[in-house]
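Proteins fold reproducibly. Take a tokenised chain:

. . .
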Amino acid sequence: MLQILKSEKDTLRELDPASFEKDAWINLMDPSSEELNTVKKLVGLPLDILTAALDEEESSRLEIEDEYILVIIDVPRKRDNDRYETLPMGIILMRETIITICLEESDVLTCFNRMTARLFDTAKRTNFLFNILFRSATNFLRYLRQINVRTDEIERHLRKSMKNEELFQLLEMEKSLTYFSASLRTNNMVVDKILRLRNNRKVEHLIKIFEEDEDLLEDAQVEYRQAIEMVQMYSEILSGMMDAFASVISNNLNMVMKFLTSMTIILAIPTMFASFWGMNVGVPWLDKAAGFWAVAGISAIATIGSAYALWRHNML
């Protein structure tokens, strides 16, 4: 999808490629080849720059050229209840326009719409870039809180019943935190590099950082660092929880095996007595009318005694 938007009197005006104007925002979301070629003709950028963020394995980075600055960051996305991932988003700053490129619709960009148009200006490209970075950081924090809440829910379920389903859900949470940790660290490195551009006169024609812009970027940096700390803390908690539940499962298995072993011993005693008195040889009380009951009684006493002894030793 290709959208061309421009801030105008606290709202956003949508343009078509034929009426493209400077200070517009070009938003490409899972673009087709035709849309990419259209943007290429409008701004004169090579296709490999426009498609850089369309590779799911692309890492966060900052690339500076005479005609543009390419910023690639990872943004969070939620697949289902227990699966969180990241995908790359490209932001290209040029002299007269800003371009955003992403493989799919992202919450980071959907918040920049007609309802919130008074809060940003597509003509202030540096400020708009920093707003996107800040929104990305706050989205990471929001998803991290969701992961924490979901982890607590799974923990409560696991306390009641040890099912494989809950353990697999915890594994998904752990995987999500791993993705977030890697993305947050590389995003924070990109923000650090952008901050170092504030006194670089060579890029002033592309990115000019005013005092209020610098404050916004520093806020984004603080949010990223907070998210990194939260990921580390949640990862440690989740790792400890997984180890604890593994120990509980192992302990439960040991208890079951101990109980089954004790029951095997107890049930073997009547079988042993029956085997002895069932041999084709002379045995006590063979010709007695009460012989069967005598053997059964001795067997019962031995069985009960064994059960009591095992119980006293916490084997039952």
Summary: The helical segments are 33-43, 47-50, 107-110, 125-160, 164-195, 211-277, 291-312. The chain has two domains: 2-250, 252-312. The CA atoms of residues 63 and 290 lie 99 Å apart.
